[in-house]
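Schema walkthrough. Field components (list of strings):
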Amino acid sequence: MNNDKTIESMSDLLKIVGDKTRLKMLAFLKQGERCVCEFVDLFDLSQPAISQHLKKMRAAGLINERKQGTWVYYRLNDQLPSYVTEIIQALPLLETKTCDCQATGLSIPLETLK
Amino acid sequence: MNNDKTIESMSDLLKIVGDKTRLKMLAFLKQGERCVCEFVDLFDLSQPAISQHLKKMRAAGLINERKQGTWVYYRLNDQLPSYVTEIIQALPLLETKTCDCQATGLSIPLETLK
DNA sequence: CACTTATATAATAGTATAATTATATTAGTT
DNA sequence: AACTAATATAATTATACTATTATATAAGTG
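Field assembly_structure (string):
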C-alpha cells in the first residue's frame, strides 16, 4: 500500500470538510435531512454558491442526496471514516429554522399531499 | 456562546491540518520528536517551504518546539482537540530515515558530546 | 404550452495559499 | 572576528478556491 496516496486522500477529504461554510452545512445535517432551499435560506450566500458546496461534499462522499419533485434533500453519509465522524461530532448543534418545504414536518412538498 | 466562532476556529485548524505536506509531517511526528533538518531531507521541498509549514502548525498549536544549539526539534502537542487526535491516529506510520542530527539516537548534536 | 420554482452548471473575477528565490538571524567552529 | 551550518523571514510568483453573475435544466402548475 502507498502511504502517500493515503495521506493525499485524507488531505483531499479534509480540505472539503475544512471550509467554514461546508462545516456549517455539516453541522445542520447532524440534525437530519435538509433540503437545498433551507441552506439557501440559512446562509448569506448565493444559491449557486450553496449548490457548488453541496456538489463538492457529494463528490467527496460526505453526503447523499434524495430527489423529490423539484426539491433535493441532502443527508450525511452514514459510512464515513471515523476521523470525519469525530469532526462532525465536535461541531455545535445549530438552531433549526424551518423552511417552507419542511413546514409539514414531513420533508415532502405540500403539493404532493393535495 | 457563539457557534459561528466555534465553526470558524475548527475551520481554521482543519485548513492547517488538511494540507498534504503538513499531514505527512504530522505522520512523521507520530513516531516522536524530529528536527527540522529531517523534514528538509525527507521532503522534496525547499527549506523555506518546510520552515513555513512548521511555523503554521506551531501558530495553530499543533506542534511544540525545542531548541538545541542551531537545531530545532518539533513534537506533537499532547493537548489537542479529540477530532485532531483522531486525524493523526488515522495517518499511516511512515518509514524513518535517520538524519545526521539523530544518528546517535540521542536527538542532540554530536558536537555537544565532545 | 407558457410560466414559475428549485436546483445545477458555466464563465469569470477576486482572494487565499503555497512554492520559490533571496536574504537575515543565530549558534557553533577555527 | 570571519566562516559555516541550521533555521527563519520577506518578497514575489504561481496555483487553487470560492464567490458572483448569467444561463441551463427539470419539475410542477394554470
